[in-house]
Write a structure and sequence with these properties.
By secondary structure, this protein is of the alpha+beta class. 20% of the residues lie in helices and 40% in strands. Strands 1, 2, 3, 4, 5, 6 and 7 form a seven-stranded mixed beta sheet that branches.
């Protein structure tokens, strides 16, 4: 089984008295089934897959450096580290190439927004990110698609609630 080591960030921002978190929507590349001519056409827009910015750690790069780079590349914003939230571990099967099973570890960091405009990313990044946007941190565990990322959003919320000086 192949191993992948990645890093990502939960970027938070306090705006108008509420905490917000940067999230990305994955491109909707899923092919749609051909319509059945015997049935009435009711098209529903596919629900966007919302997740945290993350990616593979480059050779020689530290996990925190990778998290900050991935946040910048996938959201267009820069952030400063607060603390490590934890690791998410899971197995997936590659849907491209060899179809290999992969054991993946993603280290997530709690980061505070510093500068930049969300969703101002390079055109080349649009193959990975349909759009980046702010979501209320309290809503993030319900909105994020993946269990490990939901857990990181909950940890970020718990940390913020325990740190009134933030």
């Amino acid at each position: 089984m192949v191993r992948e080591i990645s890093s990502g960030g939960v970027v938070i921002r306090n705006k108008d008295g509420s905490w917000w978190m940067a999230a990305i929507e994955l491109p909707s590349g899923a092919p749609q089934a051909a319509p059945d001519p015997t049935k009435r056409a009711v098209r529903s827009k596919p629900k966007p897959v919302l997740c945290l910015p993350k990616g593979l750690i480059d050779p020689g790069e530290k996990p925190l450096e990778a998290a900050l780079r991935e946040v910048r590349e996938e959201t267009g914003i820069t952030a400063v580290p607060i603390m490590k939230l934890g690791d998410s571990k899971y197995v997936y099967v590659r849907s491209w190439g060899d179809g290999e099973r992969v054991f993946k570890i993603v280290s997530f960091y709690l980061l505070r927004y510093e500068s930049g405009r969300i969703d101002q990313i390079a055109d080349a990044m649009r193959i990975e990110v349909a759009r980046a946007r702010w979501v209320r941190l309290e809503d993030a565990p319900k909105l994020l698609a993946y269990r490990g990322e939901k857990q990181m959003a909950r940890k970020a919320l718990e940390y913020i609630e325990s740190q009134p000086e933030l």
